Amino acid sequence: MKTYLSIFLIGFLCAGCLGRRTTNDNSDNGTATDSAVVATASAPASDSISRADTANRTFTRHGPFVENDTTFLFQSSDYNPDGGYIRHCRAYIDKNRDSESHRLLDACSTPDYDDWSRDNFAQSLDILKKERHPGSFPVHSLQDCPRTWIPIDSYRGEYYVDMLYWYPIWINDSLFVRQMMDGPYPSVIDAFERIDPAHYRFRTTAGYPDVQQADIFIVDSVRKIAVFAFSNDNDSRKKPLFYGLYAPLETARELDLVEWDFTDLPDGDEIAWDRLDFEAMIAGRISGDADRNKENEREE
Fold first, then answer.
1. Pick from 174, 117, 162, 119: nearest CA to 274
2. CA dihedral defined by 36, 37, 41, 45, rounded to 10 degrees?
3. Among 179, 98, 107, 175, CA closest to 142
4. 28, 183, 195, 241: most buried, per Cβ within 10 A?
């Protein structure tokens, strides 16, 4: 799913919403060797180094490491002595429930959670009604399916909301709404079925031209964390086109965030996220092993 999300990233960041995959090893990065995110090393922040010390103002470090009680997962600095400026990129864990990003997460229960989203959602909904689906929308009983979903990632066995790529999904009785480049984008739900207590199926494009179906598989029965599988009726592989891991808003609010501070848009490979076996997680939901199907290996 990350390939699809990358298409929307630049425009979405411009809208004010705050990477992913694996990164090369660095022998001087102070990375912990155990599975937990712990205080393992201390590295100076670029803005704490004297400007006269040009050699040490350019560096790249991969975490986790701790500075001033903050756990960093990535930090880089590129100092240009001729121009006298610094490019930097930092990714760190935000545990402060009063932070701006946590407040933003708390507020996003519906697609109109801020002025920009409200205006763009209204425009997209108007186009949907006038051009693509005139007349009334079908209405479905979603039963106990959560209505607001936040994408999450796994890092060393712990779940986080990555604020670089947070694209909420909202579902109501008629619409499947995804955050897109131009704001929340609604798609009509043509059919809904509760396959079993942990599997919901939507017939909808979900905002993608080559998708006809979205399946939600609950893989954590306590926190309701789910694998979303997006598929195409004509796909010869007989398997979903792509997957994503999501948590209901109530669960996401309890997770720590990965926050970003940068001068240039990150490449997307700064953090060594866990590689998840989505198919195994879906298969394991029956046996109760779904939450353990994480591949913590990283690309070398």
1. 162
2. 170
3. 175
4. 183
- The structure tokens 């599997």 sit at 199
Structure tokens at 41: 């090393």
Q: Can you give the pLDDT of all 300 residues of the chain as single tens digits?
A: 444 434 333 343 334 343 333 323 333 333 333 334 443 333 344 444 444 455 567 889 999 999 999 999 999 988 877 766 688 999 999 999 999 999 999 999 999 999 999 999 999 999 999 998 988 999 999 999 999 999 999 999 999 999 988 899 999 999 999 998 789 999 999 999 999 999 999 999 998 888 999 999 999 999 999 999 999 987 656 789 999 999 999 999 999 999 999 998 898 899 999 999 999 999 987 544 445 444 433 333
Instruction: Tell me how far the alpha carbon of residue 211 is from its chain's centroid.
Output: 20
Contacts of residue 141, Cβ cutoff 8 Å, sequence gap at least 6: 173, 192
* C-alpha radius of gyration, the chain, whole number: 21
pTM of the shown model: 0.77
122 near 177, Cβ under 8 Å?
Answer: no
